[in-house]
What we know:
By secondary structure, the protein is an all-alpha fold. The protein has helices at about 5-20, 25, 30-45, 60-95, 100-105, 110-130, 130-145, 150-170, 175-180, 190-210, 235-260, 260-280, 285-290, 295, 305-320, 325-335, 340-350, 355-365, 380-395, 405-410, 415-420, 425-445. The mean pLDDT is about 80.
Amino acid sequence: MMTSLTIAIIAVFVVGYLCIALESGLKVNKAAIALLMCVGCWTLFSLDPGSYLAGISPENFSIHISDLLKEHLGETGETLFFLMGAMTIVEIVDHNGGFNFVRDTLKTRNKRTLLWRIAFMTFFLSAILDNLTTSIVMIMVLRKLVQDRKDRMIYAALVIVAANSGGAFSPIGDVTTIMLWIQGMLTTQGVITEIFVPSLVSMLVPAFIMQFMLQGKLDKSQNIVENTPSALTKSQRKTIFFLGVGGLVFVPIFRALTGLPPFMGILLVLGLLWTATEIFHRKADEDDTMAKRVSQLLSRIDMTTILFFLGILMAVACLEEVGVLTALGKSLESVSGGNHYLVTGIIGVVSSIVDNVPLVAGCMGMYPIDPVAGADMAVDGIFWQLLAYCAGVGGSLLIIGSAAGVVVMGLEKITFGWYLKHMTWIVMIGYLAGIFVYWIERMIFF
């Protein structure tokens, strides 16, 4: 039986969630709402902690609440430091010309050939970097290769699909997958070997359909690769690229070798890359040096996104402490009859309407790792792998359903209605096809 205080906490969370979903209409940044929601939930919790902290004496309530906050903040902080480090690394590589090869590789006049190059390049880059950063890089490259707005909107939509699909099978490719990986629900080997093919299918099917929207060739004058001036030599730019991207790939290996959390590996890579850029820019012009140095690039990190994740994850932690997530998980489990494909499939569709970060955070609270309950809920179990796939790929169903979609929407001014009319049904076919492929994998190979 829920208490009135628990209902009030849920109400604050739901109202905050609605405000986040309606951010474009309210004209209030979602990070501000997430922070208010976080503080509001925990403030209500502190009004009557005795309802939730069984066996704790009243004089120790404040100490225990403080310990709870520190515990959840520590878990959240691991994810946030990982993201900040990864975002900084990508900024360094990008501003020092490390991604120029991406632009050169994609160059072609055939529209359909360009579509497939974009699809595969985005898919694999997203797995190495992350879907948000990859989307930004690919859109910037597309602007130099495709001038026709109608064509570029199709390519941009493909970037969203490929970035989210590529991020789903990599432990460092998507925020939600990072969360599951850091908290031990997934292993690097498990998520790559079993989710790679379904994720690839979820990209290939939409790309195959979307190619028929493009006809002919790009105008020659619109497909000229420009050379961006840089104080660094070609070999230095390659060094920065391989240090940055290779370092990100090394992070899971670093964790396996040392047992340290992933954010420590990211800090190692950032430190090495930072040192390399300082050395390379020692003899450059002063203006160029300051523009490219990490101390300047740190100001370009999207702290709004970081604060949003902080607020939303800590608010979800409050729901976990009051028992809401456990109750919700039991209800969903009873309605679905224990069918993990149905549960995670629904979660994936919902993640296209609201942000997938709190959804996955909620599921982590609703369904703790429980090998006793069966292999499906153990590490690398069906539930956790399907959750990684559905929460990542399902975000492509609507343009506001993922960080990649939101950033592309802003950069290319794609409307919600256009994407819903032209792309949602295509993405849905790929989404369901990937789930079907995963089911076949489980039936035959695993």
